[in-house]
Design a protein that fits this description.
Layout (H helix, E strand, L loop, with lengths): L11 H8 L1 H7 L5 E5 L4 H9 L2 E6 L4 H17 L4
Parallel strand pairs: 1-2
């Protein structure tokens, strides 16, 4: 019988918070951070924004939506608006 690796793996939302969000905290000092994630629990959104993300997008990813959000963010940066 094949080993069941799924039983030993952490919950997906916890993988996100341990691996992705610390990188966002580092990058936010240098650039805007956009999180693309399969983790869609309310707490995941909060962690993403707390980690410095300006956008947190979950699956299904819609390229047009991301492009529009990026344009909106860029226009606010140009106008020096507070987000």
């Amino acid at each position: 019988m094949w080993p069941n690796y799924a039983e030993s793996q952490p919950e997906p939302a916890r993988v996100c918070s341990r691996n992705i969000f610390p990188v966002g905290r580092i990058l936010r000092a240098y650039t805007a951070v956009l999180f693309l994630s399969a983790c869609a629990k309310p707490a995941d959104y909060g962690e993403g924004y707390d980690a410095g993300g300006v956008m947190y997008v979950t699956k299904p990813i819609r390229p047009a939506q991301i492009l529009q959000m990026a344009r909106l963010y860029a226009s606010r940066i140009e106008k020096k608006e507070t987000i």
